[in-house]
Amino acid sequence: MYGKAFAPEYQGELGSALGVNSSYEEVLAKASHAHDRADTALERARAALAVAEANRRLGRVTEAGAAWRESYRSARTAGDAGAMAWALWSGGTLARQCGGLPLARRLLTHAVALADGSGDRLAHGYSLAGLAETGRIQGDYAAVAELHEQLLEQGRAHGEARHMVWAMSGIAQMHRNTGDYAKALELFEESARIAEAGEDARGRAWSLRGIADVLSVQGQTDRALDLLSEAEGICRAMDLASALAYNHKMRGNVLYRAGRYEAARDIYTLALQEFSEMQEPRGVALSRLGLAKSRARLGRDREATLSELAVLERDFARIGLRHARDMVIAFRAELTARPAAETPAPRCDATTLRSPAVPARS
């Protein structure tokens, strides 16, 4: 059994004023007000943490970076190791969002140590979850698969719907990326049900996106697009800028698999603009790959496509995205295996790029 989803990153007076489904403009307004009225270092740390998280999810990475650092400094002044851990968790999550995976690992590793020493179970769990997520994004499934399972068991043991949704969708993503579509779909659908029952709208949006991805691979294009439209409505209602951009990128994937290359090109262009505006290099690179593939199907010069793929391969290697780099290599092999005048036909069961589904922490 599990209870309603909650947001432990909103602490002190903000914990009672805000919930997991609060829009991030509302979070930012209330957290900024609380910060202005804070009398103690700990109160400032808690308010700055909420400011950081709101800005991060709104795609304002510069403001988010300044806020989590302020939260950490204030927590250190207060001598509160748990609050320091929460600030580092926020900073590590921001680093991952911005493509700085080695920095994310360092910050989250420090957060785990601080949370462990402080006895803050939720900060410890979130920080471990962040480490698992970072490894999964890098494609290091062997290293983090067991940790995902442990986190799922912890969520079940404490009745925490939000944690269960996050861990379950992460496990589903690994199954999807290794070709076990049936298991991935089962887990994504269960994740969506738990999110709905726990009133975790953000978690449901990410889970629906995962379901749409798998259904699309299986050729169920219309159903996939309907689910993405439902998820998009949630993203817009909650001001989830990053999640909305990834939703659009996935819509591009669905259209591409269906052979609707012009529509895919247009939506990848939109996603690229959104990611660029929020300075999210991982999303930028993924959108550029989708755009390059769509343009290639529409007759773009093959040498120009190969040149762009070479740049993208270097970008993915630099960021540390193994699965994405493998997809660049696979598409290049398709292009070079055929005469230049031919446009290779898509394979509806081909593994295509998938950004991580992390409903609880993105």
Automatic annotation (TrEMBL):
Spans annotated as Disordered: 341-362
InterPro entries: TPR-like_helical_dom_sf (IPR011990), TPR_rpt (IPR019734)
Pfam families given in the database record: TPR_12
Protein name, entry field: Tetratricopeptide repeat protein
